[in-house]
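During data preparation, a discrete fold description was generated, as reproduced here:
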Amino acid sequence: MVKQLSVLSLLILLLLISCRNDKDNAIALKVFKYNQPNNVTSLDPAFARSQTNIWAVDHLYNGLVQLDDSLRVVPCIAKSWHISDDGRTYEFLLRNDVRFHKNKCFGEIGTRQVTAEDFEYSLRRLLDPEVQSPGSWVFKGKVDSIRPFEAINDSIFRIYLTSPFKPMLNMLTMQYCCVVPKEAVNYYGADFRRNPVGTGAFLFKRWIENQTLFLNRNPHYFESVNGQRLPYLEGVRVDFISDRKTAFLKFMKGNIDFFSGIESSFANALLTPDGNLQKNIQDKINFIKNPYLNTEFIGINYTILPDNHPLRNKYFRQALNYSINRRQMLQLLRNNIGKPAESGILPHGLPNYNDDTPGRYSYDISKAAELLTKAGYPNGKGLPQLTLHCNKDYLDICTFLSRQWQQAGIPVTIEPVESATLREMMRNGKTAFFRASWIGDYPDEENYFSIFYSKNDAPPNYTRFNNKSYDQLYTQLLTLTDERQIRNTCNRMNQIILEEAPVVLLFYDETAQFVQKNISGLRSDIMNILSVKKIRKTTR
């Protein structure tokens, strides 16, 4: 009898283990896996500066408002808002069903509801000089210096601006502006960067720095779709494989669900020269290409050059723009990922992008020759050797540019430097001719026009551009609400940039995202934010 019971107990134990394994396997099948070639440096929203940090923070936290698939500002933790008639006071009414993730920082209660005081604390923290948040610029100079933020009660939160600033709602969708609990910041101190406590669709599980980040589903997340609570996944795993070719091979073997970006070593294995998915893999993976708020350009800081230098001559700068066959560049070097930047600084994807703008820089070698003569350098005669500073990732593009300029009679030497060194040179005004880009912080034209506003330091005004008419139009843009007036002002500012040519425009970027066939619900937008809360993963 005892022996029979032992056998029965063993069978029950094996059955329980089998059931548990089946459950673990089912959960594992619903874990979304992707790679980031750069490491996460912090899981604190106050330091959500890089794409890697931004994506991770987006999984873990929420803000007052968010962007929908059409880039409209919609409710998140704030269920509604009101802007005063003078445009200086923003009042938000908060939901009462949002709670922070369970964490020991809250003591025995484990968690608590988010209140307006949490937003007052979180946004003030961005401005705290001791925190040294790279996101302090979001509010610096825009909010009242005495009373920037105020919690009226648990559910009403206000922001007070010094003057109207139309892009403010868009800026509040940035990950910098997510809410954090004071208890967690105090409890973990400097180590809060690796012990995140948010309200997001996923909970922090484990972070092995420089290797892997693990997140679990938040079973108490407040958002739902058609009555079904988000998220649909059981978890997220982020690997940090710096070698993009290695990550690509893992993706092709099905060990990664999502892969973003291309490079020359494997671009042709994925895409045709025209930018379409190769036929032999169309039944294995899906390809998503969308406009991405990123304008690539060559910056010109002629303020540090002698008065007689050719880069000080706007006709010479215009000749540089007309000498480039952007379409050929994109096809040869980027498999047609991107759109030729011929129409100004605003990238394709923003509402007031104008493809037919007058004075656009289409490839025209004859026009370039005319402008060189007008600048006093017929056929390039008398031109000094120009030095173009470039980070190594863009060496192929800059080599293409130098050859194009050489054909036009413009001698250019490329000097490769490390990315961090190049940024420092741009910031300190130590380079007059440099490869750069502007990735949109939020989907508003003002963000792009700000990089040429003379009262802005570097960043964003790396070219030190200074134009009185442009500055007047920029300050007007900040207060406009009528769409026709906004479009007219944007067009006029764009015309000044095209005419004065403080940059050599290259291309408007596009996302290149590859995903396994069993993944659905992937949201791709012009901000290039990987939002995972609506993703579904099925068995193959």
